[in-house]
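Per reviewer request, we include the raw input and output of the structure prediction for the construct analysed in the revised manuscript.
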Amino acid sequence: MLLPMYRQRLRHCPSCDELMDEVSVAVTGSDEPARVDLCARCGSAFLDYFDGEPGELSRGVLEQHLEARLTKGPAVDAEGTSCPDCALHFQRQTYMEGPSVWRCGGCQAIYATLADLRALAAYRLPDEEHVRDERPSLLARLKRLFYKEPW
């Protein structure tokens, strides 16, 4: 099996140290599936920064790989765990004003416990058109910056 450059080896689960399985997840708008590292023992997943949008990946992992075989994974405490790639401790961070996730400060990967996967799967990114309508255009912001009167 050929792994992309950023996937140099199979990983061990940061929580339970089991070798993680590399699974394919269908991604909207792509002919190629994303590859996600999934722990069959505890249901956690390692989402590389380059794999895709974490919410969509989480929905795919749950729908395509986990929900049928794992209804409740063991309680996993990711506190103090380290990234299998960088060996840096994961830090709890808020993802896009949504759920909090364990993120590596080095490679920006996300380590998601089963509970984190479910929270990410339930979270939806704001509708791009709706967000775009609320923000002033670049031209409007430049005019405000260079002129005293708002346009």
